[in-house]
Amino acid sequence: MTDDSEGSGAANASEASEGPVPAYPLRPSTAHVPVSGAQADGGTGSAAGAPRSADRAPRVVALGGGHGLHASLSALRSVTDALTAVVTVADDGGSSGRLRRELGVLPPGDLRMALAALCGDDEWGVTWSEVVQHRFRSEGDLHGHAVGNLLIVALWELLGDPVQGLDWVGRLLGARGRVLPMASVPLDIVAEVELDGVISTVCGQVACALTPGRVQAISLVPEDPPACPEAVEAILRADWVVFGPGSWFTSVLPHLKVPELARALHETRARRLVTLNLAPQAGETDDFSPQQHLEVLRQHAPDLAVDIVLADTGVVDDPGALDKAAAALGGRLVMADVAASDGSPRHDPRRLASVLDEIFLQKR
């Protein structure tokens, strides 16, 4: 199974004010409280994009969705305490799709998975991570719904603000970072798909992931969705922006199709890092080489400069070609052992964290 998003796999195809003080206890020592100004700079007040020093954690924004973003955040939360996830909101399958259609809300599933990834390794974090990821199994209407999806949507209805709702869930979980939607409205992905020499159009994240043809390009509906303002601000203030791993066409590239977000990604002084997948994804990137992933990224954002391309040593058959593709984006290739030792196409959080920390400290 690849680093794909919650709503893109075959398994899911079937499927303003602070408000009142909650009754549950929040642990002040680990609760996430949004900060600004010098606090967001780790107390240094230094400019965005400045080289990281050993006494200040880097401000990192991670882009993506689903299992790929979960892998990235699981590593990054041990590297920095100034971490923001900017998450795709195009899922139309499973529990997320049902809630989206019934209530008109943002699909919560990828946001939930990001919050779960930011939970700590202590008893509180492990327990709440399992709770929000738990899915009901029944013969009734609750079947397949994730507890975290229902919790997030309940807070959205009570507070009337998606960002505040996510912040409150983050506080409950003791999340080691902040989770934000990439857009303020639900999105649909439209893909141009080639099959036997014929180009057709496929609409919807699940349909794009399950298409028998090869995805050539994507667009969004609506074409000019409002970006989440807090996400734009986080990108502009970041030291590093991390793309991937994850479903290339349905989790990574959509961020570049939201105009305000794309503008911020081009204008930020942050350095940009691309973490490549460990295996092609059936449907979306069948038979893609690592360098083809970069070529597709360049096609969708030809003016976007990349500083680092991170690839696992064991999946690169042609280092020279990948190095050339990285250079075409303005970056350099870093190869390291970041895959899980069991042979599955999953990133190992500790290995990935170690390499990312060395990159942020400019030791690689």
TrEMBL record:
UniProt function note: Required for morphogenesis under gluconeogenic growth conditions.
Source species: Nonomuraea cavernae
Family label: Belongs to the gluconeogenesis factor family.
CDD domains: YvcK_like
One of the record's GO molecular function terms: LPPG:FO 2-phospho-L-lactate transferase activity
Gene3D superfamilies (UniProt xref): CofD-like domains
Main location: cytoplasm
Keywords assigned by UniProt, alphabetized: Cytoplasm
Lineage: Bacteria, Bacillati, Actinomycetota, Actinomycetes, Streptosporangiales
Low complexity bias (residue ranges): 7-19
One Gene Ontology cellular component annotation held by this UniProt entry: cytoplasm
Family matches, as NCBIfam families: CofD_related (TIGR01826)
Subcellular locations according to the entry: Cytoplasm
Region (Disordered) location: 1-53
Record-linked InterPro entries: CofD, CofD-like_dom_sf, Gluconeogen_factor
Coiled coil stretches, renumbered: none
Name of the protein in question: Putative gluconeogenesis factor
